[in-house]
Amino acid sequence: MPAIIHTLGDLEGIREAWRSAGESVALVPTMGSLHEGHKALVAEAGTLADRVVVSIFVNPLQFGAGEDFEKYPRSLAEDEAFLADTTVDIIFAPDVDVVYPEGPEVAPTLDAGAVGELYEGASRPGHFAGVLTVVKRLFDCVNPDVAVFGRKDAQQLFLIESMSNAMKLGIRIVEVGTVRDADGLALSSRNAYLSPTERDQARAIPEALETASHADNPHEAVRVVRQALESAPGIVVDYVDAVDPDTFLPVFDSEMVQHAHLIVAANAGSVRLIDNRLLHFGQ
Ligand code: PAF
Fold it and tell me: Hey, which of 5, 45, 84, 250 would disulfide with 26, CB 3.0 to 4.6 Å?
């Protein structure tokens, strides 16, 4: 069983012992309610460093008004049991005042820049400022050599990598591919909110991405996904777009592009789901 640590003092003691022993540390930041997607992150982390820390913290700053902060699933005991057969050394589960001693309402947030205003950022204002702020604070607490994130949250991953580079944090950011259920739906803690009917309808999202992977260019891929989802029962599209993986900006000249990240957000009932797929063209 990994040890659960709640305070900075306990974490720093262990971190210091590891540092003295010359051991490297990988951090897997999470908001808990762990599933097989998180296990894949943990498994990758175990190959990258001597020690693995999983943080579990439901970050108030990344939830907007009317979002699911209060009802976001919290299940520390189940999460601890879920990680029992892994190589995780520590679960760092701080209280809000450990991460935001000044109070979350007045904590200065990091600026997620122009890309932070697009897509998820447009639909969830302030979301990425909250994500970057908490990730930076978790980095400061844990002081990892490497941090591991899932590709399902492609825009988040892009922004965290950009932050790490811009601030010269010296922390290697490693991405792990999306883990899917047998029917293709990307694993997410929010899938737990889906009713059986919505869960069934949500399959349209990975199916549309799969169909679009045969498109000849990014704009056609976007059209294919949009058409498929707009006619899918129970699905309401928020955005579909093809972005340049290097900039996360919309692909401009569709014919000239060799790679594009096809990104989608849609609601199945009241549950907002995101997914993406990296597409290759003309090869
Ligand atoms: O992807 C998540 O679970 C969260 O956004 C993260 C990175 C743990 C920050 O709260």
Answer: 45
Which protein residue's CA is at the shortest distance from atom 6 of ligand 1? Answer: 30
pTM above 0.85, yes or no: yes
How far, in Å, CA of 53 to CA of 239, rounded? 34
Q: Rounded to an integer, what distance in angstroms lies between the CA atom of residue 55 and that of residue 65?
A: 24
Query: What is the rounded CA–CA span in Å between residue 128 and residue 136?
Result: 12
pLDDT digits (tens, 9 = 90+) for 191-220: 999 999 999 999 999 999 999 999 999 999
**What is 189-277's CATH topology?**
Pantoate--beta-alanine Ligase; Chain: A,domain 2 (3.30.1300)
**Best mutation site among 27, 28, 30 for ligand 1 pocket (most ligand atoms within 8 Å of CB):** 30
Tokens of 71: 């009802």
- Known catalytic residues are 38
Nearest CA to ligand 1 atom 3: 30
Is the C-beta atom of 131 inside 6 A of ligand 1? yes
Domain assignments of the chain as residue spans, ordered by start: 3-176, 189-277
Give the whole-number percent of the chain exceeding pLDDT 90: 96
Tens-place pLDDT, residues 1-33: 899 999 999 999 999 999 999 999 999 999 999
- Ligand 1 centre and the CA of 55: distance in Å? 9
CATH class of 3-176: alpha beta
